[in-house]
């Protein structure tokens, strides 16, 4: 037949041209080599899922119609490279921009060629050499995309309506049960003959064809290990001997029943494999193009606009030129912090997500919510602390593969395959999270990771905590503050700034420190007598390049800004429990014999009076200060509404 003309597929079933086209298709399909008596039936009902003989296929096509999007007859012996004609057309409904967007999304997600991709591309079909393994899913989804939600509906198809509905479910945190009830309501409200699924389960089966794989991995109740790989079938932890399963106190299954009760694990982490997610980014021609922005479009004029302008990025490029030579190799940031998934603030629960940020994207995209990739979901109710490395094992394994071997990836913007590599450049967290990810002991006398063993601290006997001194060491040698004794600790500071240790020097410190994934590892969190700089050797050092990074861990300034701001506000407004200027602080000043003007004044009657400090405000000054703060207006997205700050509200309520 003339396989280059597929216009008949868009006609109605009773049109003579359609009937003629069906006969031509039958002749084409059954004339191919290696075809015996049956072929996949491309009617709307079978959608290439059932194999039928010649008469059955012809009858179905005349009765139900052909899948109009099936203009590439890959399932019936047609070769992709031969499809180089301008007569191939897409469905008429692609004139709708929303339909076109979903049409393109499906083709990108399943690496299926469009008609325009094949035009004049006989010599460049490297991305389409073989039909994808998921071709059946693709054609099923395309069929749902063309299937009207109800007879005569032009606004929604079956697939487009479900996608919008599930999008609302995610944004509105709608439960599965509630969505199922909504589907039942819509099913009743829509006209007869509508194609909406009957239940949430049926709808999920359709949407699942678009989703990426996720894994559930059981974990030890004490965060000692994961039940995976060689321990996938283990019944108890090999370290602490804790049982993997919850105990069943009551069961409705009678003792004589042959069916065994389903075992419920204590903890189950969710892992979302990284490689298929990175590959999907490159499947779309639009996102694939944006992944090269950092090299193709970034302006290098010395202004810091993007991580690619940083010393850490440039240092990595200089050390690994082969990695830097391919702009499509992915550079990632890793962030983690605990949060409560429950809206009830009275419930104490901490779930830890691990999120990856693709820094190849331009700055206005890489930090958007839709660009962030959830990698790991660590269950609560308590945070993993330094044992977070146990849950990072699957990710680290993939990252090692992406660095040492790479994976073949299809670039939708260039219509070619390439070997993709990836690397994590740094982590982002608050200060406690810094200790969990790096292994550094972020409390005690030597808590500063930058100063390392040269941390300058002083134990406040009355305050019951360490005070970290020596900040003037980072000033220029001739700075006036180095010689200002009265404003600081009554000493002249002549010491140089601490030297930042290299990765190799840190590895030397970690020579006798164990990884938490080691079977012999024991946490020393509660043993104050053991004075160690490091709590563990971070699992990130398993990455071959980790020790050579210029900046391995970043602090999230959001937490720092919030804490510093609240400390200043609490002290200026003298809010009980929040002010840093209290009785113990004044007693510690006396103990250190500094700031004598702030020492307590002993009265004749035995009482003690706290003299005002230079920053002490009167009641009127406090009111004026609060009035000013609450009147400040910031641009949208620049800052939150400071008038809603809890400290200011507390001060207002006290007058």
UniProtKB/TrEMBL annotation:
Protein's recorded name: Transposase-associated domain-containing protein
InterPro entries given in the database record: Transpos_assoc, Transposase_21
Domain Transposase-associated: 6-78
């Amino acid at each position: 037949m003339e396989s280059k003309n597929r216009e008949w597929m868009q006609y109605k079933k009773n049109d003579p041209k359609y009937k003629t086209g069906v006969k031509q298709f039958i002749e084409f399909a059954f004339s191919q080599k290696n075809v015996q008596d049956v072929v996949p039936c491309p009617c709307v009902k079978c959608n290439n899922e059932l194999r039928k003989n010649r008469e059955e296929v012809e009858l179905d096509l005349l009765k139900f119609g052909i899948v109009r999007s099936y203009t590439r007859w890959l399932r019936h012996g047609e070769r992709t490279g031969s499809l180089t004609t301008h007569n191939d057309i897409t469905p008429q409904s692609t004139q709708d921009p929303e339909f076109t967007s979903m049409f393109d999304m499906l083709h990108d997600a399943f690496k299926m060629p469009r008609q325009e991709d094949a035009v004049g591309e006989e010599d460049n079909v490297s991305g389409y050499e073989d039909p994808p393994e998921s071709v059946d899913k693709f054609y099923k989804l395309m069929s749902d995309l063309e299937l009207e939600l109800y007879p005569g509906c032009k606004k929604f198809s079956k697939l487009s309506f479900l996608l919008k509905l599930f999008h609302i479910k995610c944004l509105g945190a709608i439960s599965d049960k509630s969505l199922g009830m909504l589907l039942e309501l819509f099913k009743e409200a829509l006209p007869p003959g509508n194609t909406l699924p009957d239940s949430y389960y049926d709808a999920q089966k359709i949407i699942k064809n678009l989703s990426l794989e996720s894994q559930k991995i059981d974990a030890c109740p004490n965060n000692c290990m994961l039940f995976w790989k060689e321990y996938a079938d283990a019944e108890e932890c090999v370290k602490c001997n804790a049982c993997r399963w919850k105990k069943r106190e009551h069961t409705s299954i009678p003792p004589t029943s042959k069916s065994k009760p389903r075992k419920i694990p204590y903890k189950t982490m969710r892992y979302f494999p990284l490689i298929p997610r990175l590959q999907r980014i490159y499947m779309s021609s639009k996102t694939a193009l944006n992944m090269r922005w950092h090299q193709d479009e970034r302006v290098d004029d010395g202004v810091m606009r993007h991580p690619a302008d940083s010393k850490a990025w440039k240092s990595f490029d200089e050390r690994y030129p082969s990695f830097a030579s391919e702009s499509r190799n992915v550079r990632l940031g890793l962030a983690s912090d605990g949060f409560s998934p429950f809206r009830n603030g009275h419930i104490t629960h901490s779930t830890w997500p691990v999120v990856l940020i693709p820094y190849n994207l331009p700055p206005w995209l890489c930090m958007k919510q839709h660009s962030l990739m959830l990698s790991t979901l660590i269950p609560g109710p308590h945070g993993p602390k330094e044992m977070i490395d146990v849950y990072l094992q699957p990710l680290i394994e993939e990252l090692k593969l992406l660095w040492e071997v790479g994976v073949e990836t299809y670039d939708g913007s260039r219509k070619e395959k390439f070997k993709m590599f990836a690397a994590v450049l740094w982590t982002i967290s608050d200060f406690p999270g810094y200790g969990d990810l790096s292994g550094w002991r972020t409390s005690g006398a030597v808590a500063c990771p930058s100063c390392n063993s040269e941390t300058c601290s002083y134990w406040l006997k009355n305050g019951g905590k360490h005070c970290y001194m020596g900040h003037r060491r980072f000033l220029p040698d001739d700075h006036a503050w180095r010689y200002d004794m009265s404003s600081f600790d009554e000493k002249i500071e002549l010491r140089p700034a601490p030297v930042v240790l290299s990765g190799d020097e840190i590895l030397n410190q970690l020579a006798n420190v164990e990884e938490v994934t080691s079977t012999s590892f024991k946490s020393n969190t509660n043993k104050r007598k053991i004075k160690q700089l490091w709590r563990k050797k971070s699992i990130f050092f398993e990455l071959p390049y980790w020790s050579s990074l210029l900046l391995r861990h970043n602090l999230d300034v959001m937490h720092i800004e919030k804490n510093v701001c609240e400390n200043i506000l609490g002290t200026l407004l003298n809010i009980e429990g929040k002010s840093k200027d209290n009785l113990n602080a004044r007693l510690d000043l006396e103990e250190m014999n500094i700031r004598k003007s702030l020492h307590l004044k002993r009265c004749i009657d035995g009482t003690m009076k706290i003299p005002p400090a230079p920053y002490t405000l009167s009641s009127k000054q406090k009111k004026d200060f609060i009035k000013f703060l609450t009147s400040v207006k910031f641009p949208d997205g620049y800052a939150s509404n400071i008038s809603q700050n809890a400290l200011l509200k507390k001060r207002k309520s006290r007058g």
